[in-house]
Design brief:
Strand order of the largest sheet: 1-2-3
Largest sheet: 3 strands, parallel
Shape: globular
Number of strands: 3
Order of helices and strands: HEHEHEH
Strand content: 5-15%
Oligomer: single chain
Structural class: alpha/beta
Length: 110
């Protein structure tokens, strides 16, 4: 997924990350640590600023995603949880619109 993100970020500069985690059950603590400490920083370097999760259906899955979110405290990537796919995608789209508007405002003479 990192290679996919890197390739597409080069073309779609406002690309962020959507995770449909509804079917996530559990991960080993070492795997969560690895993703939080090894993989996420590589996504950050590639330009990721937002990651939207659809909350898992099971309590164990919700704990797993929450644990990942808490261990991913770099400050560069905002991680949010949503009840539905639509809410998660809407949050990402609002962010893209906001970033585009802010960048336009900053680049306009005035």
């Amino acid at each position: 997924s990192l290679e996919f993100y890197q390739q597409h970020k080069a073309v779609h500069l406002k690309l962020e990350w959507f995770v449909d985690a509804r079917k996530v059950r559990s991960l080993l603590p070492a795997d969560i640590e690895w993703v939080a400490n090894e993989i996420l920083p590589k996504f950050e370097t590639a330009g990721l600023t937002k990651e939207a999760f659809v909350v898992p259906e099971t309590a164990l899955g919700r704990f797993t995603v929450k644990d990942y979110s808490e261990k991913s405290k770099s400050g560069k990537v905002t991680i949010r949880m949503f009840a539905t796919i639509e809410e998660a995608k809407a949050w990402l789209k609002v962010w893209v619109v906001f970033r585009t508007t802010a960048q336009t405002a900053l680049s306009e003479p005035g």
